[in-house]
Hints:
The protein is of the alpha+beta class. It contains 10 helices and 6 strands, in the order αααββααβααββαααβ. It has a domain at 22-61 and 110-267 and 333-438: Outer membrane efflux proteins (OEP) (Up-down Bundle). Mean pLDDT is 89; it is low at 1-22.
Amino acid sequence: xxxxxxxxxxAAAVLSSTAAHAESIYEVYxxxxxxxxxxxxxxxxYQAQKEGVTVTKGNLYPSLSFSGSLGYSNVDAPSIEYDNNxxxxxxxxxxxxxxxALNYAVDAVEISSESAGVSFNNSEEDLALTTLTxxxxxxxxxxxxxxxxxxxxxxxxQLDRAKxxxxxxxxxxxxxxxxxAEYDSVRVTELSARSSVSYAQxxxxxxxxxxxxxxxxxxxxxxxxxxxxxxVDTLIAKARMxxxxxxxxxxxxxxxxxxxxxxxxxxxxxxxxxxxxxxRTDNDYSVSTSSLTDGATNTSSxxxxxxxxLYSGGAINASVxxxxxxAESATEQRASSLQAIExxxxxxxxxxxxxVAQIDAQQxxxxxxxxxxxxxxxxxxxGTRNLVELLDAQSNLYNAQNTYEQYRYNFxxxxxxxxxxxxxxxxxxxxxxxxxLVAKN
Length: 441
């Protein structure tokens, strides 16, 4: 029995520790970074691209190679017959001192490396937005469940009151049935809310590899307002500078334009290289003649070579035209993405403005429905209102409160989307948001 108790205690302790560490939104993001294979793949790609720069730059420097051979030959001719044991050692040099195409190739891999770095940063930002959105989805689900549980408790109280009044003849069977029906309805809603919480928890578990059961709530005094200095134009200007997807497209255009230079250099510019070699050959013949002499032969050479492309059946001009068309395509793709980004910013800004107004209106609605519920309760106590009206007023208030919380959380999610599209969803912003998440009362 003890063998089973000890592992259970350890598992409970680990689960408890995990939940404690996962409460902070910043901690959840760090867990997601550690767990996400896509981010690790982007980091590996970036590292590979950086090494590719070194590999390609190596072609600009002198290349030395060493070779050696040990051989045996047998000659059986009408005039002579002999054997020969020989060995050869050779050191060869190749140094391209002028090669525009090679220089452009280095530029190409440097552009690819810088683009890979931005892609890695973009993957981090995408992961941050996804993780934070899933985090707030859990907050929304938990808030809905909390409101629904309060409604279930209140409805159960009304049902119990209706039963007691029915037993003493102060309420009709219709009132009792209405109360029972309302209670059954909110119980079904509660089950659905619990299912939503469970799904949101499993989504975060998939993202972080950790069980997250309890997270803080958004502080009641979280400011629901927009920065008065923030305008659509300033947001678009910032996105043009810092949006990661747009930066990647800028590198794509730069790479495509550089490819035009590569194709022109490959087909229209000469290549100049210095070549040289040092070699030693030792022969050991079985016979000795004037033409077959044992011993070592040392050879050295150096040359300046020039290669000039002249004609390739029209392929040179076609390659340049092809590269030009690809550059034009990359430019238009960037323009299209910029239009989509600008439209997204305008939409998000409008959504935030609408959310501010909705939250303010929803607060007023809660006050109105609170007053309506109090009036309905008073009317029910004196017999001017019936139980159905009381239950409706109660349900309306709880629904208004739940909608209010959803509006608040959705406002934060919209702000996070706006930070991401303007390239400003950094760890500092996540830590700043973390300060507004407080433990449940």
